[in-house]
Each structure stands twice: as structure tokens, then as C-alpha cells.
Design brief:
The complex is a heterodimer of chains A (about 190) and B (about 500).
Chain A: H1 3-17, H2 19-28, H3 44-58, H4 62-88, H5 93-110, E1 118-122, E2 128-134, H6 141-154, E3 160-165, E4 174-179
Antiparallel strand pairs in A: 1-2, 2-4, 3-4
Chain B: H1 16-22, E1 27-29, E2 35-38, H2 40-45, H3 55-58, E3 59-63, H4 70-76, E4 81-85, E5 91-99, E6 104-111, H5 117-121, H6 135-182, E7 186-190, E8 196-199, H7 201-207, H8 211-214, H9 219-223, H10 230-241, E9 246-253, E10 259-270, E11 276-285, H11 287-309, E12 313-317, E13 323-326, H12 328-334, H13 338-341, H14 353-367, H15 375-379, E14 389-395, E15 401-412, E16 418-427, H16 429-472, H17 480-487
Antiparallel strand pairs in B: 1-2, 1-6, 3-4, 4-5, 5-6, 7-8, 7-11, 9-10, 10-11, 12-13, 12-16, 14-15, 15-16
The chains are: A alpha+beta (about 190), B alpha+beta (about 500).
């Protein structure tokens, strides 16, 4: 997993609960990494263990932790690393969402060893689109929903996210319906 | 297709809209550098780049260095050009292409940024760039490497801080290790099963065992012996199984059978996650203390028995005179219970005040300083280390009086300070009575002696009279010895 994801976990725990609790979570998860390098690949186990340990220590279900991480990623972690790019990637929520597939394609071009997820925007209207999320990883749908909520806050646009398809025997990927009120043209 | 590999007839002829979409930042000028055509985005962000405008009035050349003229451009068209839009300072990187057929100079390029934040600052977004344009990719690479550098710096700072902390800890550890190794106490580190993983020199000194002999063994398996208290062993086992620390005193046996007492303090050691990893034991040899305690216990028992069973009153006080010890003989003698006296009364309560006052006066003269009546009169000599034994009158609780012979001694600590006084009093009532009896008997005997002596003198006198009567009649004395006594009248007792 992209080091930035783990960094988001770290940032969020430290921001809300302090360094001591983060060290406790890291230790509980058996993770001995001093600093997560944003663009390095880490085994997925690390992320899952961190989420599991955080869930245990913070006494919150893992889905809620992932949701929080997604939002935190957009509003804090990615802003610190890619703030300029994120601002350039869209002046409105729909514009940003349309750029999301390219953004991840570039990640896979620039860092061939990483296995970033793939996004596709379909059924685009002026008030909604269907975001198709392809990932070989399991259980990260709440993280994606958290990302969408974070983007809604970033663009000051009330956003509704509904998972309309879940990866499983019947579908090879998740689909989210993202809706927002009409955005005035810029 | 000809031999140059190029098609003879151009297969692509882009209409202006599509060309503008493919090259949103392009412009075309004639030989006078008058703008003939611009890309849509360029027109939007460089408002003065309109058709008919002069290129050199709108743009400066940042690279290569030179004056923007048609000829100079043509001379340098093998290079890339970096143009600076004078009004917005936007940099455009690209190349000039001479389209001879149209006599048009075409500039194909796109904005040059060194930070992604500049895109939005110039009012641009990703959608303003052609999809094939690698500028955005380059910015993402650039941003990623900046991020990697920031991460590396964060890591380096953290590692530097950790190294400093580590150095400090190492120094502390070295000191602690030295203390652990050199201390007289035994120190033992065990794993969570209680098996030894480390011992210090103190352990070897106390037990006689070296590390290779005990490594991996439980201390209890070779240190305990027949007189080790099984209850203590059970308590220790219970606390260890719960992962708890404890303090105990236990009798152990050394390698060569020496019995020794240990005061053990065991602490569980946990890792950062709170998992038990080791037990650490610090053990002090308290054999001398335990033996001294045993001896003291025996001495105390003997002392207590002596005090309890003594036939004379033993009363001790603190330096101020408050009673601290009042033995059963004192209770019997004075009629007070120890509970009534200890911590509540001074010996003055059972002394005759007048006697104490008189004694104070005597001592004032004898010692040459004022001695106050009361408790001081009982201890003034003793506190100077002088023997003080004399008769006093004690007053029983019921008011009855009786004579006692009281010896008073001051109690000193190691520093020579008085910690209290000890008084030992024996009842003189019987002795006084006996003395009286003896005195009366002697007096009676003297009287009897006197009577007897008078009687004997009278007999001698009668005998002498008989001798005188016989002498008158010329006869010899009947009691010549009486005459001899008369001649030498020394009385015989």
C-alpha cells in the first residue's frame, strides 16, 4: 500500500489523540516503521493491522476508522503533499472527480511498483456520477466513501455517496453513486 | 510513402478548433511577429495575446538569451524557447516551427511550472492542458519527489533525535549496568516463565553459583531447601503467575549449603505494548539482620520475663518524666495498673511531695545548682551519671505509705543523650519491721542483762555480809570469793 495511506492513519490518530496513542497503536499492530515514506510501497498487512489496532484502541468499528481516514486523507494528508496538484485538479467537485482516474493513472506510471486503485467516472450528469473503483484490495470501500466526503468538504459542496455495487462474487469492483447539488459553472 | 518515410500527402489536417484543443497554448506569427492565431487557453490567460498584437510587446525571451526578432528566432529554432508573458509572468516552454508554405512561424508549447501551486495561481486547471501534455505528469513527479525529500528529512530529523536519545540512554544504561554488576545485592533477570536469563556478580557472591550453572533454571529450583518456608514459596509462585511484583523475605541455601536470608523485591517488566517480557529481582542478603533480630527477640523475651517476674518495682520514664514502663511488681506495690500510669503519669504521683522538696533542697546544696522539687529531684544525680540510691516513701493509690529503696539510673543513647530514666524500687516495709524486731529484742536482752547483773551483785553483797558476820565471831569466811570480788569490783558480764 502507498505509504501515504499509512501516513494518513498516523496523521489522523496523532491529530486527534496524540503521539502516545499512536505509538501504542503501532506497537499493538506490530508495526516498527519510524516514518512512512509517502511514495513507497508497504505491505497491505501494515495498513490492515494499523486499522485493526486503531479500531481496538479507539473502540470504533474498522469501517468508521476507514471512513475517517478517507476524509482525513483528503483534508489534511494529501493537502500537505499534493495540495497544489489537488487545487489544479479541479475547481469544482465534479471536475476533480473527472480528473481522479488520470491522477491514479499517473501514480502507476510514476511509481510502477505501486498498485494504485483505478477509478472510472461513468454516467456523468451535472448532479451525479457513478464512480467505479477497481482495486485488488479488500474492504477499503469505506475509505473511498470517506475520500468522497472529504472532497465534498474541500469543495464546500454537500455530497451524498451511496455504494450501489460491492465487490464480490457478482461484481469485480465497487460502484459508488456520488451526487451533489447543481454546481454553478465557472 | 516516399523514401524519406514520410507520406507524400499529409494524412492529418487538423481544423483550427481541434488544433487549438491539441495545443491550447500555441500561437502563430508572421514574419513581423504579428500574432495570427492563438490557442484558446493562452488567449484566456494572456488577455493581451490577441490577433494582430506584436509578439515582442507581449513576451520576453528567458531562454535562449537574445532579442525577439524573426531572424533571431529562425537562427535559434533548433533550441527550445522559454518565453515569459510580460503581464502575468507565465513562462511558456516550447519550440518555434517555420511553416514555409504559409510563411508562418508556429510556437508549440505549454506553461512551465516548478510548483503545482502555480497552476491555480495562474488561473489554470488540469482541464486547460492537453491530455498528451506531460507538464501535469512532470508536476506530479516533481511533487512526489518533493514529498519524498520531505519524508526523508522528517526521517532524518527523527533518527537524529533518536540517536541523541539513544546516546543518552546508552550512557545511563552503562551506569546502571555498572551499578547492577557491582552492587552487593544480587540481581536476577528471568523470562516470563521465571527462568534465569541474566545474573550479576552479586548473585554469584551471595549464592556461589555462576551464570552457566543457573542459566535457564528457575531460582527456586536450586536455592530453596528444607527450612525454606513453603507458604512464602507459594505466595511467590502465585504473584509470578499473575505477572505481579512483590517483596518477600526468604531463607535460601547457597551452592555449598550456606543458609542465608534474602529480602527479595521482584518487578515485572513490560514492553511498550504492556506485554510482560521479564521479571527482575533485586535480592539483599539480610542474614546478619535476621540473626540480630532473632538474638534481639531472645534478649527481649528474657528482659520481658525478668521485668514481669521481678519482685521489685521497675519503672522507666522518658526524659520528661512520663512513665513508659510499669512492671507487675510496681502495680502490686502501688495499687495502680500499668494502663493508668504508662504515658499518663510521672513518678511524682506516688512520691511524697515534701520528701521531694526536701531532697531538691539537699541536692541544690550538694550539686551547687538549683534542683527543682518534683521529677528533677529524683533524677538530678542520675542524669550526671552518679549513683543514686536512697530511701523514699511511696504513696499507694489508696493513700497508704511505705518505705522503698529506690535506685535511679539515666538511660543514654549511643550519642550520650538521655533517652529516659529507669527506677528500681524495693519495698522496705518488711525490712523495717525486721529491723524494729531486732531492735526490740536487743533492748529486752539489755534490760534482762541489767536485771541479772543487779541480782548477782545482791548475792555477792549477801555473801560478803555473811563473811563479815562470821569474821566477827572469829570464824573464817564462808564465801572467800565474794571478798575477792569485792577487792576487785570489776563487773563481769
Amino acid at each position: 500500500m502507498y505509504g501515504m495511506v499509512n501516513k494518513a492513519v498516523e496523521d489522523m490518530v496523532i491529530m486527534h489523540h496524540g503521539e502516545t496513542l499512536w505509538e501504542q497503536i503501532k506497537s499493538k499492530a506490530g508495526v516498527d516503521v519510524e516514518v512512512f515514506m509517502s511514495n513507497e510501497g508497504y505491505t497491505d498487512d501494515i495498513t490492515y493491522s494499523l486499522v485493526g489496532a486503531a479500531s481496538e484502541v479507539l473502540k470504533l468499528p474498522p469501517e468508521q476508522i476507514l471512513l475517517g481516514f478517507g476524509e482525513h486523507w483528503v483534508l489534511h494528508t494529501a493537502q500537505e503533499g499534493y495540495g497544489g496538484l489537488m487545487r489544479a485538479a479541479g475547481r469544482t467537485l465534479p471536475e476533480f472527480l473527472r480528473n481522479l482516474p488520470n491522477f491514479h493513472s499517473r501514480v502507476s506510471m510514476i511509481f510502477p511498483k505501486l498498485q494504485p486503485p483505478r477509478f472510472e467516472c461513468r454516467d456523468i450528469t451535472d448532479r451525479s456520477l457513478k464512480l467505479h473503483y477497481f482495486s485488488h484490495r479488500q474492504g477499503l470501500a469505506p475509505f473511498v466513501i470517506g475520500l468522497m466526503h472529504g472532497l465534498g468538504k474541500m469543495f464546500h459542496t454537500p455530497v451524498t455517496v451511496r455504494q450501489v455495487e460491492a465487490k464480490g462474487p457478482a461484481a469485480d469492483h465497487d460502484v459508488f453513486e456520488v451526487t451533489w447539488p447543481t454546481v454553478p459553472a465557472i | 510513402m516516399n523514401t524519406t518515410g514520410q507520406p507524400t500527402r499529409p494524412p492529418i489536417g487538423l481544423p483550427p478548433e481541434q488544433f487549438a484543443a491539441a495545443f491550447p497554448f500555441h500561437f502563430a506569427v508572421d514574419k513581423n511577429l504579428t500574432i495570427l492565431q492563438t490557442g484558446t487557453t493562452l488567449r484566456r490567460i494572456c488577455a493581451d495575446a490577441q490577433l494582430g498584437a506584436k509578439l515582442e510587446q507581449i513576451f520576453d525571451v528567458a531562454r535562449p538569451e537574445g532579442r525577439l526578432t524573426f531572424d533571431w528566432v529562425m537562427q535559434n529554432k533548433a533550441n527550445f524557447f522559454l518565453l515569459r508573458h510580460r503581464a502575468s509572468q507565465l513562462l511558456l516552454r516550447g519550440e518555434f516551427i517555420w511553416l514555409a508554405e504559409n510563411e508562418t512561424l508556429l510556437f508549440l508549447g505549454s506553461p512551465w511550472f516548478t510548483d503545482a501551486s502555480e497552476i491555480a495561481a495562474h488561473g489554470l486547471g488540469f482541464e486547460d492542458f492537453a491530455i498528451h501534455d506531460p507538464v501535469v505528469d512532470m508536476l506530479q513527479v516533481y511533487q512526489a519527489s518533493k514529498l519524498a525529500l520531505a519524508d526523508a528529512k522528517k526521517l532524518a530529523d527523527k533518527l537524529t533525535a533518536q540517536r541523541a536519545e539513544l546516546r543518552k540512554q546508552t550512557a545511563e544504561m552503562r551506569t546502571l549496568a555498572l551499578i547492577a554488576a557491582r552492587t552487593d545485592n544480587a540481581a536476577v533477570l528471568t523470562d516470563t516463565d521465571g527462568k534465569i536469563v541474566w545474573i550479576n556478580e552479586g548473585f554469584t557472591r551471595i549464592t556461589g553459583y555462576t551464570f552457566p550453572e543457573v542459566a535457564g533454571k528457575k531460582p527456586g529450583s536450586f536455592l530453596q531447601g528444607p527450612d525454606t518456608d513453603p507458604e512464602t514459596v507459594r505466595r511467590i509462585g502465585e504473584r509470578l503467575s499473575k505477572g505481579e511484583g512483590f517483596s518477600e523475605e526468604i531463607l535460601n541455601y547457597g551452592k555449598h549449603g550456606r543458609r542465608y536470608w534474602l529480602a527479595i523485591e521482584v518487578q515485572p517488566i513490560h514492553d511498550d505494548a504492556g506485554r510482560l517480557t521479564h521479571f527482575m529481582a533485586i535480592e539483599a542478603d539480610i542474614t546478619a539482620r535476621r540473626e540480630a533480630e532473632e538474638a534481639l527477640k531472645k534478649t527481649n523475651a528474657l528482659q520481658r520475663a525478668m521485668i514481669e517476674s521481678a519482685g521489685y518495682a521497675i519503672i522507666s520514664t522518658d526524659p520528661q518524666g512520663l512513665i513508659r514502663l510499669f512492671n507487675p511488681a510496681a502495680e502490686r506495690m502501688l495499687g495502680y495498673t500499668a494502663a493508668e500510669m504508662i504515658g499518663r503519669q510521672s513518678p511524682a504521683v506516688f512520691h511524697v511531695a515534701e520528701e521531694a522538696a526536701a531532697r531538691a533542697q539537699e541536692l541544690t546544696v550538694e550539686l551547687g545548682r538549683e534542683v527543682k522539687p518534683g521529677f528533677e529531684s529524683f533524677v538530678a544525680k542520675a542524669e550526671m551519671g552518679l549513683p543514686d540510691q536512697r530511701e523514699w516513701t511511696y504513696v499507694r493509690k489508696d493513700g497508704g505509705r511505705f518505705p522503698v529503696l529506690l535506685s535511679v539510673a539515666a538511660l543514654f543513647d549511643d550519642g550520650g543523650a538521655i533517652t529516659g530514666y529507669l527506677g528500681v524500687a524495693s519495698d522496705l516495709t518488711e525490712r523495717k519491721r525486721d529491723e524494729e524486731k531486732i531492735r526490740a529484742t536487743l533492748s529486752e536482752l539489755e534490760r534482762f542483762n541489767r536485771v541479772m547483773m543487779n541480782r548477782e551483785e545482791r548475792v555477792i553483797e549477801l555473801k560478803r555480809e555473811v563473811n563479815q558476820l562470821l569474821a566477827v565471831s572469829g570464824r573464817p569466811p564462808a564465801y572467800p570469793s565474794a571478798n575477792e570480788i569485792s577487792a576487785n569490783p570489776t563487773p563481769t558480764n
